[in-house]
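[Q] Does anyone have a clean C-alpha cell version of this?
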Amino acid sequence: MRSTDRLDNLLPEMTEWRREIHRHPELGYEVQRTAGFVADKLRGFGLDEVVEGVGRTGVVGIIKGRAQGSGKVIGLRADMDALPIVEDSGAPWSSETPGHMHACGHDGHTAMLLGAARSLADSREFDGTVIVIFQPAEEGGGGGLAMVEDGLMERFGIQEVYGLHNMPNLPIGEFAIRPGPLMACADEFDIVVKGRGGHAAMPHVCIDPVVVASHIVLALQSIVSRGVKPTDPLVVSVTTLEVEGAAYNVIPQSVHMRGTLRAFDEDVRTVSRQRIIDIATRTAQAFDAVAEVDYRDGYPPTVNHVEQTDFVVGVAGKVAGQDKVDPDRVPMMGAEDFSYMLNARPGAFIFMGNGESANLHHPHYDFNDEALRYGCQYWVTLVSESMPLPVS
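[A] Here you go.
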C-alpha cells in the first residue's frame, strides 16, 4: 500500500481522535486523560517503547526503523494542553468541560502525530529511530522546558527535533517557515509604584502614584523608539494598571502595573529588560515615589536552525508542492515553548494552514479536520526523507 493511501485511510480515525480530545480539554500539566489516551494509542500501534511522565505528564514513544545503520534519531513534537476559555464554536464536538477549550489546535497537533506514529510503526520504512513527543503545558506552563530538564534529549538520544503549528487563514495544504527567528520571546513584568495616598482635593500633600505610573507608561514606549536600533523588532506593552479602591476623591497609595516584552534578539531582550527597570525606578524617584520591578524571563525566541529549515522546506514541498510553501515567513511576536527544544538540539518549527477560521485563542476557533492529512503526511515524509532506507 502506498504511504498516501495509508494516510488517507487514517483520516477518519485521526478525525475521531481529534474530536475526542477536543471534547475533553485539559490545562497545563493536568493533562492526565489526554496523556493516557495518547499512551494507550501508542501501545496499541505497537511502538517499541512508550514512556509516560516525562516532564511531569509528557508522553514519549520510540519507533525503530527497519534499518539502524544510519544511527540517526529525530524527535517529532506535538502539544496536548488546552486553554481556560469558554468555547463558542458551535461544533458538535465542543468542549464538555466548562471554561476549558482547545482554542489553539493542540487537539489537531496531537491527532496528526498519533496518525504519523501509527503509519511509521506499521511500515518501519526508514533507517534510524523516531521519537514521538507529546508535551504538556505549552500554554504558559513551560512544558517544553520541563521535558528538556527531565532529560528528554539525552534519555532518548535525540539528535534533531521538529515541531509544527496550525495557522488560521493560511490555506489548507500550505506551509510557512523561515530560518532564524520565527517567533518572539514572551517576558513579563510587574511594576508596583508606591506613593503617598490622600484626599484628591489636596494633591499637594500626596505623592500621586497614578501620575507617576502614567509617566512610566509613556517613558517605556521610548525603549522601542529610542532604546534599540529601528531595524530591531521589539514590543513593550503595559497591559494593566490597578489600584485599591474605586473612589472618585481618593489618591491611592500605590499602583500595580503589568506588561510584556517581545523580542527576537537576545541582545535586544537583555538591553530592554534593563531599560524597563531603570526607567521605572528612576522616573518614580524623580517624583519622590518608589517603583519596585519584578521582571521574569518567559519563553525564549523560537529560532530555526538554517540547515534543518532548508530541509523541511523541501519536505513541505513534497507534501504540498513547492509553490505552496513560503520559505521566508514574516516573523511573529507570539511565543512558543518549542523554543526550549530548539535551544537544546538543531531543528525547525513550521506553520501549517488551517484554512479560514477564527484566530488562535478565540472562543469560535476550531481546528480544521481537513488539515490532518497534510500534517500527518508532513511528519511521515520528514522521516522518510531524513532517514531513507539504504538502496539494496
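[Q] Thanks! Anything notable?
[A] The two ends are 20 Å apart (CA to CA).
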